Amino acid sequence: MALKVYYDFMSQPCRALYIFLKLNKIPFEHKLVALRKGEHMGEDFKKVSPISRVPVIDDDGFVLTESVAILKYLAAKHNVPDHWYPRNDIKAQARVDEFMNYQHLSTRINMAMLFQNLTIIPRMRNKPVDWKKVESFRKGVGITVDQIDKHFLKDNRPFLAGDNMSIADILGICEVMQLYACCEERFIESNPTVNAWAERLKPKLAPYFEESNVVVYKVREHFLKNPPTQPKL
Ligand SMILES: N[C@@H](CCC(=O)N[C@@H](CS)C(=O)NCC(=O)O)C(=O)O
Hints:
By secondary structure, this protein is an alpha+beta fold. The protein folds into 2 domains: 3-80, Glutaredoxin, CATH 3.40.30; 90-225, Glutathione S-transferase Yfyf (Class Pi), Chain A, domain 2. Helix content is 55%, strand content 7%. The chain has 11 helices and 4 strands; from the N terminus they run E-H-E-H-E-E-H-H-H-H-H-H-H-H-H. The protein has a 4-stranded mixed β-sheet, with helices on one face. It is globular and about 55 Å long. The structure holds glutathione. Glutathione binds next to helix 1. Glutathione (GSH) binds at residues 11-13, 35, 40, 52-55, 66-67.
């Protein structure tokens, strides 16, 4: 039975999973879950995962949530090239795990929440932007980018876990794209090390990086037409 993948391109970890599946030619059945329509909260999806978040996979009855767990499982099951998630070199594997554990409370929380506070929350709840929150997540993004520069990419490491591209890089770049969606990319572009990493990585994920990010570019276009105005302090 085909691997079923429940996803929506609005979601960063879903985009990461999609890119990984396509690059590794792992066949799957597309199960689209439209977050903007609230399909993840519906009874049908709750039967798959009562956690009501994407991505989720169903591999012949083995249902798994959480992008990191899913990526590690699929890397092992499909015996993908070792650079994605090293099997035998425990230090190389630990470096990939290091970023994947770090990202939840750094790239993910700060970049996703900055995006949400500038776009989704004001639009969906029809409320003015909470600029205090925006500034707080901007501060978090700045700290995160600096940490990536000084720790994960130190000593001219080309990728987040060292010399080779890994699943950590795919997860990382998909979170970073939230900044582009809300025109906050200056945080990346002003850091030469992190910017060089992003530009080095994107072509390696072609064409699936661009394909899965179409929605990000659409949101950005809309944001550029209707930018919220920040009051002067
Ligand atoms: N830690 C989870 C996070 C999953 C997650 O937060 N998914 C979001 C989309 S990016 C979602 O489904 N949100 C719907 C909701 O929370 O209501 C993972 O990495 O898979």
